[in-house]
Amino acid sequence: MRKTHWCVITGAPCSGKTTVILSLERQGYRVVHEAARKAVEEGIAAGMSLREIRESPLDFQRRILQAKLTLERKLPTRATIFIDRGIPDSIAYFQFFGLDPEEPLAHARHVRYRRIFFFERLPWIRDGIRNENPETVARLDTLLQSAYQTLGYPIIRVPVLPAAARTDYVLNHL
């Protein structure tokens, strides 16, 4: 078991995670940006459509999981680092797509995060990266919470507040 000082920022799509991660980064904290968003942005920059990028849910989810694993292997365990979506998020996404979650579950059992900050949902806004709708977001919200709880993590719920107040809330609960 790899015990870390890392803090996961998680929650359903459109819950304000990226805004807080960027705020923490501007304040000088070390952060890890969301692997899925990066993969989608890179695909779009290469001329692919969102449909093409996510054509095979299994391939896409495995690619995201592998990106997280590769990145986390390089991180110092004693440093406070804020991660936009941890390995357990992959469990929820595998389940969401009807895939066997054993692969991400096996990896999630080998790392222990210091804190899990679960962001309450904000009003839904579609952007060029998201392809979910409010119903799927609600289901993902439940699956994400369940993934962390199954692994025995206490969840720190971050309420809907202005972005700066949410950032302060996270820092005050380290």
Structure description:
It comes from Desulfococcus multivorans DSM 2059. Residues 7-159 form the NadR/Ttd14 AAA domain. This is NadR/Ttd14 AAA domain-containing protein. It holds the Pfam family AAA_28. This protein is α/β, with parallel strands linked by helices and 174 residues long. It has eight helices and seven strands. The protein has one domain (2-172): P-loop containing nucleotide triphosphate hydrolases (Rossmann fold), CATH 3.40.50.300. The chain has helices at residues 17-26, 35-45, 50-53, 57-74, 87-96, 102-108, 134-150, 163-172; strands at 2-3, 7-11, 30-32, 81-84, 111-112, 115-119, 155-158. It has a five-stranded parallel β-sheet, with helices on both faces. A two-stranded parallel sheet has the order 1-5. α7 (134-150) links the parallel β6 (115-119) and β7. α5 (87-96) packs antiparallel against α6 (102-108) and α5 (87-96) crosses α7 (134-150). The mean pLDDT is 93.
Strand order across the largest sheet? 3-4-2-6-7
H/E topology pattern: EEHEHHHEHHEEHEH
Class of secondary structure makeup: alpha/beta
Q: State the fourth-level CATH superfamily.
A: P-loop containing nucleotide triphosphate hydrolases
Straight-line N-to-C gap: 21 Å
Q: Give the total of beta strands.
A: 7
Domain NadR/Ttd14 AAA: 7-159
Protein name: NadR/Ttd14 AAA domain-containing protein
Organism: Desulfococcus multivorans DSM 2059
Pfam families: AAA_28
